[in-house]
Write a structure and sequence with these properties.
The structure is a homodimer of 476-residue chains.
Chain A: H1 10-27, E1 31-32, H2 35-41, E2 55-57, H3 62-74, E3 79-82, E4 99-102, E5 109-113, E6 118-121, H4 127-135, E7 139-140, H5 151-156, H6 164-167, H7 170-173, E8 174-180, E9 186-188, H8 202-206, E10 215-222, E11 224-225, E12 229-236, H9 240-252, E13 257-263, H10 265-275, E14 284-291, H11 293-309, E15 315-318, H12 321-327, H13 329-332, H14 334-339, E16 346-353, H15 359-372, E17 379-382, E18 387-394, H16 399-418, H17 437-441, H18 443-456
Parallel strand pairs in A: 2-4, 3-4
Antiparallel strand pairs in A: 1-2, 5-6, 6-10, 7-11, 8-9, 8-10, 12-14, 12-15, 13-14, 13-17, 16-18, 17-18
Helix pairs in contact in A: 1-3, 9-11, 9-15, 15-16
Chain lengths: 476, 476
């Protein structure tokens, strides 16, 4: 992929070095420049090249973040925020070097307001840490992107995942943010009120901005009550189309499904082998319902009726935790099962999202394209949202295969855009999807994004080279 | 209130006149300059002075809107978008004159995608028009701010209303927008996909921006299925606190209440008199549940139990449309009932929103303050969101009373902000709430809003004098 490589630029590199000297004077051994730590922080899970920052700093407070950004701003040195490094499109790469701000030590859960169903956390808190903390109070934070990501990272990439069909994405579950801007100022984007019409929505401007407009230092999140009853079910279908139609009917009927996941034939085959299951090797829907006991029973029954209407069955469902886990094993182990199809190879996860009415078409055309491209990529979909993932298993040593994979990924995005969809439903833009933004948004809207970036970060020091560039010279 | 009056400015007024001449050449009798029409379009429902635009233009397409904005931009003439004029904080006033763009003729419902639960409409479509159109397809658009507002206006003010506790606000129900920017360019903010991580959230930037960043010409909305069963109920409580605590418990218990409205004692008294009801003159909660028959029955029963726990009762509920209407009459006629408390006076609606745990305190302190201020203002609250309205009944001829009312409104906002709330939950900023933004957001965040405004509207022609000004000279 045409990811800009770091060029030699003695002036810029001298400025970065000066910033690091000043940072070291201020933060001592919390500034790390060892090769290994730097490379970890340019971590990517794709075939994007590792582009390490020049130093990594570990702040312990918003004050620290302000101090770091002010020093970097003075020297025009890039700053890249880092959560757990689980982003998928090169969001933490440092194509122009600079200073990585690793927020792992800012991992305090500051307050839980149980009556208001909200909490205030630092950005380094992870999803699992938060849910463990909340469990005793009967509360949970529903956004689950799979990885044990940090809440700051999830906000930055507008993450979502399996529960989004019922609970929304990070866009819907962040009430307010504190963030340090490129000038070192700390802003608070909103009050703790459930809703507000008081001016521009700075919360939503920062959610999904991938550290290019500010560095998140505190997040107020909506929480949900742990449901009294959870019912899980699985059902095989004769075709992807049948499974998608059953999904559409489920949602149209107003059944408040909490999760509805599709595995394609190949993913089911992989799961049978890896998790020692005996599922029919056909497209599989996995569903989960949250509510009262009577409510989840009714929802499960209605879903079963809909599934049968579309040739699905048998529909197995369960409410006991251990039985639910058994039923959903194919989904939980899905990533590892997929990787085991071609052990030792690179597994590249990509995602697109289309209106649900086009989902079956998008999935089946992509499956056909895969076969024609001699590629292997099991599919897992958050089908209630029209969002699906393909895990391409590619031999990184085989340049012809990489070329075929790149061409395939390109057609996948083109296909989604042609169906009124988006190039990424939840992974974000980073470096990997930048090239699709002109086609998706049009030049006029992209110009608006560039204007916003210029207005808030005129020196282009906040995670430069991600989402939008500001001209032929990416620092211009 | 210290609303800037239109000053004499021959240069600006000459430029506006030149713009109107050019507009008339292009749009003929769709440009109207009669005093009556101009004053209608500066309509406010508050005591803000009427500040009419210099002309009103009626576009029929996005092309027309682009043409109008380009002419105005060329002459630096202000442009103010107009839906139905039901905004409450002077959003459509023209403090610096200029050209009002009335979108009433852009009222086509372009497409309904029933499978995707979305539709595409022009901004002049009204809420009732849309719901009438959708009814036969079993769909509805849930946002209900009371007035039969236009969808464009509702998006612009980030409207919400009684259903927001279940269905969210306009922020949550707009999938995508088309809008004409200050430079005349038309942008589309997003695809029709249910979710996306593809760059900055331009949709949410425009929602709630009150025409200060762009003029909305098309809206893609999420729709919901008309519920199979609707149950409505009412229940009196010994105190506002008891009613609020029952609300908190209802929401914490995960009961997916669709509406939960509070009327205070005074509003109940007003409704008894106006609608010939015999409700106990105590705080009243009105609830509505959406779901399956079994589901709404279970929700109603559980709510009844919670209500009893907090001393509420008797809990009356109904599922037949005519019975539901009877139970909710006090809410439906609430505005007129309140006005009838002091006939012939000005009724000034204001709103604030606080975390739900502070709601009882905020309401009761405000009631005490009212008594001490010798003012009358019945209260209606969307209590599931912590949002409530006070309808101040003020004798506009009595300047002492107006002064007391203004001082009261000021304390109301201060009280909400001190409780981590917002100066407006759903009415927006317009002119009336501008002065509270520095305290609510802080200067650093307000500077960000100003930077965004400057970036997208460097000439400050889009609805100037609303939300933020750009310096001592509001046109600077």
């Amino acid at each position: 992929m045409a990811i800009p490589q770091r060029t030699l630029d003695p002036k810029r590199d001298g400025a970065i070095a000066a910033a690091i000297t000043e940072l070291t004077a201020a933060f001592g051994n919390r500034v790390v420049t060892s090769q290994a730590v730097r490379e970890q922080h340019g971590h990517t899970t794709t075939w994007l090249p590792n582009q390490p920052p020049d130093a990594v700093v570990f702040p312990q407070s918003a004050d620290d973040v302000q101090g770091i950004v002010k020093i970097c701003a003075k020297h025009s040195a890039p700053v890249i925020a880092f959560g757990t490094g689980s982003s998928l499109e090169g969001q933490v790469n440092a194509p122009q070097g600079g200073v990585c701000i690793d927020l792992r030590d800012m991992n305090r859960i500051i307050t839980v307001h149980a009556e208001d169903l909200d909490c205030v956390v630092e950005p380094g808190v992870t999803r699992e840490q938060l849910n463990e903390y909340l469990r005793d109070q009967g509360l949970f934070f529903p956004i689950d992107p799979g990885a044990n990501a940090s809440i700051g990272g999830m906000a930055s990439t507008r993450a979502s995942g399996t529960n989004a069909v019922r609970y929304g994405t990070m866009k819907d579950n962040v009430l307010s943010l504190k963030a340090v801007l490129a000038n070192g100022e700390l802003i608070s984007t909103a009050s703790r009120a459930r809703k507000s019409s008081a001016g521009y929505d700075l919360t939503r401007l920062l959610v999904g901005s991938e550290g290019t407009l500010g560095i998140i230092t505190e997040i107020t999140l909506k929480l949900s009550g742990i449901p009294e009853s959870i019912a899980a079910g699985i059902c095989s279908f004769p075709s992807v189309e049948a499974a998608c139609n059953a999904t559409i009917m489920t949602i149209q009927s107003g059944i408040p499904v909490a999760r509805i996941e599709l595995l394609d034939e190949l993913q089911v085959k992989a799961s049978n082998a890896y998790s020692k299951l005996t599922l029919p090797e056909k497209p599989l829907l996995l569903v989960e319902f949250h509510g009262t006991e009577a409510g989840t029973a009714e929802q499960s029954e209605r879903f079963g009726e809909i599934a049968r209407e579309f040739g699905g069955g048998p529909f197995e469902w369960a409410t006991k935790p251990e039985d639910r886990t058994r039923l959903w094993r194919a989904r939980h182990d899905g990533y590892w099962a997929a990787c085991a199809l071609r052990p030792g190879l690179r597994a590249l996860s990509t995602d697109v999202c289309v209106p649900i009415s086009r989902l079956a078409e998008c999935v089946t055309e992509s499956q056909r394209d895969l076969v024609e491209s001699k590629l292997i990529a099991p599919i897992v979909g958050h089908v209630g949202d029209g969002n699906f993932h393909m895990l391409l298993l590619v031999d990184a040593a085989n340049s012809a295969e990489i070329a075929r994979a790149e061409a395939f990924l390109h057609r996948l995005v083109e296909r989604a855009l042609a169906m009124e969809g988006t190039c990424t439903g939840e992974h974000g833009v980073g470096q990997g999807k930048m090239k699709y933004l002109p086609e998706e948004h049009g030049e006029a809207a992209l110009d608006v994004m560039r204007s916003l970036k210029r207005a808030l970060d005129p020196q282009n020091i906040m995670n430069p080279g991600k989402i939008v560039t500001l001209g032929a010279n990416p620092r211009a």
